[in-house]
């Protein structure tokens, strides 16, 4: 099944996407950059670099850390970090809803789709009118 992935570029400051947001969610869950990285099969160094990129991307920190030691260190997703997660997931949900009908049409056109072309045409939602000149000839029905 086709999916839409949301990536937001904050040029020149950085970008966020599903991977960084998932890392934040796991840091919040585990209280540890290292543990969150392990859950994503990434090294501590890579997870730390991503956290640093997130913290540089915004005025307010996304994650704060405590130095390790006898009682151990840790990481905390800040209030702003929680807001970032919420805003990203909300935009992701709204984006998927906004393009769901178009995505279904494209998904039905993939070779892996078990639905016959006739059934796909019958099940496809009505699309908005095509622009006067479609500049994407790779999509069936678009003529340039």
Description:
With 144 residues, the chain is mainly alpha-helical. It has a domain at 8-97: Winged helix-like DNA-binding domain superfamily/Winged helix DNA-binding domain (Arc Repressor Mutant, subunit A). It is 49% helix and 10% strand. It is built from five helices and four strands, in the order ββαααββαα. The chain has a two-stranded antiparallel sheet. Strands 3-4 form a two-stranded antiparallel sheet. Strand 1 and strand 2 form a beta hairpin. Helix 1 (18-30) packs across helix 2 (33-39) and helix 2 packs across helix 3. The longest helix has 30 residues, at 79-108. The chain is elongated and about 60 Å long. Mean pLDDT is 82; it is low at 133-144.
Draw up the topology in text.
Elements lengths: L7 E3 L3 E3 L1 H13 L2 H7 L4 H14 L5 E4 L7 E4 L1 H30 L8 H7 L21
Antiparallel strand pairs: 1-2, 3-4
In short:
The chain is mainly α.
Using the CA coordinates, give the radius of gyration: 21 Å
- Label the CATH architecture of the domain at 8-97: Orthogonal Bundle
Helical fraction? 40-55%
> Quick one: biggest sheet?
2 strands, antiparallel
Q: Termini separation (Å)?
A: 28 Å
β-strand amount? 5-15%
- The CATH homologous superfamily of the domain at 8-97 is called Winged helix-like DNA-binding domain superfamily/Winged helix DNA-binding domain
What would the principal axes of the Cα set say about the shape? elongated
- Read across the widest sheet, the strand sequence of neighbours is 1-2
Compute the number of strand runs: 4
Task: Output the helix-strand order.
Answer: EEHHHEEHH
Overall residue-averaged pLDDT value: 82
Structural class: mainly alpha
The total of helices stands at: 5
Low-confidence stretches: 133-144
Per the CATH scheme, the topology name of the domain at 8-97 is Arc Repressor Mutant, subunit A
By CATH reckoning, the class of the domain at 8-97 would read Mainly Alpha
